[in-house]
Write a structure and sequence with these properties.
Layout (H helix, E strand, L loop, with lengths): L1 H24 L4 H13 L8 H6 L3 H8 L1 H16 L2 H32 L2 H10 L2 H28 L2 H27 L1 H5 L3 H6 L3 H20 L1 H9 L7 H8 L1 H17 L3 H26 L1 H30 L1
């Protein structure tokens, strides 16, 4: 366990200099730069979490409940800020308390179950073997490429545009992200079941009717989000952010696409296809970067939203191409 935790801490610490560089380059007031660095740097405390052990023991309910701790603390901090002011300070405090509580939550669980784990040496050995560096390095890169694909538009907008464009895009993306987070928890819960599937079962998971159902559900949510975009922005962020309605209209079309890409990428990772996911995510993120470099300086947040849609189509096409290989190799 200590070996895994040391590795996580090393990787989290390596990210801090990049966060500092981004905060320094972002076109934001100094106060917002400090907030950006502090808020993001606190995220490195995730390295102390034992969520990987909970997932390895298939404690999915426990892992899901623990994920809610940080958003709950952020919400509590925001409520305090609404009464006392200093919103940024309370958000940083809420983020810090959330990560600390989550780490303590998993440590308490680990201590309570340590005796049971000690009596199941084979299970512990299986988890340790699955977390060997040679087996996790490609998966780690695949997850990082996925993360880069999901966040590169916001990062580049902060460097290439102005605070107004960043604020509007962030407001639109945060509303979209609430729907996606719920879906991500569902696909994440499926990971252990997907990992145990044989070749025939994997082919069954790639049936067209599954994709049609996912696309239909995503399309209904996209329509509702687009239809109610103005009142949603006004209620959540205030009347000035209603100006982000055109951005939310464009980003709403991401929902059905993300429902497909998240399902496929999660399944591929469970099926030991990390290299395929890495390739697909890298191509999609690279295309997004190129498009953003060419268009954000002139068109701002609108360009970032359109480029996000284009890169999602590229990502889906790449994943579909890799999926065809599964059928041929396992037929």
């Amino acid at each position: 366990m200590r070996r895994v935790q040391r590795r996580r801490l090393l990787m989290a610490s390596a990210a801090i200099p990049f966060v500092l560089i981004y905060a320094a380059l972002a076109r934001l007031p100094f106060e917002l730069k400090l907030f950006l660095f502090a808020f993001a740097a606190i995220g490195t405390l995730y390295a102390f979490s034992l969520d990987w052990a909970a997932w390895g023991r298939e404690q999915l309910l426990l892992a899901g409940l623990a994920k809610a701790i940080i958003p709950a603390c952020l919400l509590f901090g925001l409520l305090i800020a609404m009464a006392r002011g200093h919103v940024l300070s309370w958000l940083v405090a809420g983020n810090l308390v959330g990560f600390l509580l989550q780490s303590c939550f998993f440590w308490v669980w680990w201590q309570r179950h340590l005796r049971a784990l000690g009596n199941q040496q084979q299970g512990v050995a299986d988890i340790a073997d699955a977390l060997e560096w040679r087996r996790t390095s490609i998966m780690g890169l695949a997850w990082m490429a996925n993360l880069a694909f999901a966040t590169v538009d916001m990062l580049m907008l902060g460097v290439l545009s102005n605070p107004e464009q960043v604020g509007l895009y962030s407001a639109a993306y945060r509303i979209l992200n609430q729907l996606l987070l719920a879906y991500y928890m569902l696909t994440g819960a499926l990971y252990p079941q997907l990992a145990r599937q044989d070749h025939a079962q994997r082919r069954q998971m790639l049936r067209p009717r599954i994709f049609f159902a996912l696309f239909a559900v995503g399309s209904v949510l996209a329509f509702l989000l687009a239809f109610f975009r103005r009142p949603l922005l006004g209620i959540v962020f205030g009347h000035p952010f209603v100006a982000a309605a055109p951005l939310l209209l464009l980003l709403a079309f991401v929902l059905p696409l993300d429902f497909l890409t998240s399902y496929l990428s999660n399944a591929y990772l469970a099926w030991s296809m990390e290299r395929s996911v890495l390739l697909c995510a890298a191509v999609a993120a690279g295309s997004n970067i190129v498009l953003n470099l060419a268009t954000i300086p002139r068109y701002g947040a609108i360009a970032a939203a359109i480029n996000t849609l284009i890169s999602y189509f590229i990502y889906l096409a790449m994943l579909a191409w890799c999926g065809r290989g599964i059928g041929r190799s396992q037929a």
